Amino acid sequence: MSMTQEERKIVIGLRLHNAEEALVDAASLLDRGSLRGSANRLYYAVFHALSAMALAEGKVFGKHQGIISFFHADCVRTGRFEKKFGRVVQKAFEDRTEADYEDDVTFDDEELRTRSRDVRELIDLVKQFLIPKP
């Protein structure tokens, strides 16, 4: 994907916006008791944030596993992000996969609320890396 620096900044901003929107959607679904839907939206909040981070570093991936691998290798193993965030990303991906593809899966409301707080923290950290402070 070839784009100018300005185009890249715009797309990064859109992806961060999409991450925020997915997180809001996840909270709304959780409050309504739609745990499967909330698990899906929590993962996509993570996905959009990590996709913004990858693009900022000039990397584009065609598969979800590529973005997850990028995060583990370039962000967690290098120490830029705590190991706990590697687990947050992996669990969000696993939950989304179960929510979307398993017929009989149940989620724990409190676990999803905890994950939502962790995803909020992850998005905030990604923003710290991507948005320069004045």
What do we call the CATH topology? Four Helix Bundle (Hemerythrin (Met), subunit A)
Averaged pLDDT, please?
95
CATH class: Mainly Alpha
Low-confidence stretches: none
Gross morphology? globular
Relative helix content: over 70%
Radius of gyration: 15 Å
Total individual domains: 1
Strand content: under 5%
CATH architectural type:
Up-down Bundle
> What is the H level of CATH, i.e. the homologous superfamily?
Nucleotidyltransferases  domain 2
Order of helices and strands: HHHHH
Distance N to C terminus: 29 Å
Structural class: mainly alpha
Total number of β-strand segments? 0
Main pleated-sheet profile:
none
Tally of DSSP helical segments:
5
Descriptive account of the structure:
This protein has 134 residues and is mainly alpha-helical. It has one domain (5-130): Up-down Bundle (Four Helix Bundle (Hemerythrin (Met), subunit A)). The chain has helices at 5-31, 35-56, 64-76, 83-101, 109-130. α2 crosses α4 (83-101). The longest helix has 27 residues, at 5-31. The chain is globular. The protein starts with a helix and ends with a helix. The mean pLDDT is 95.
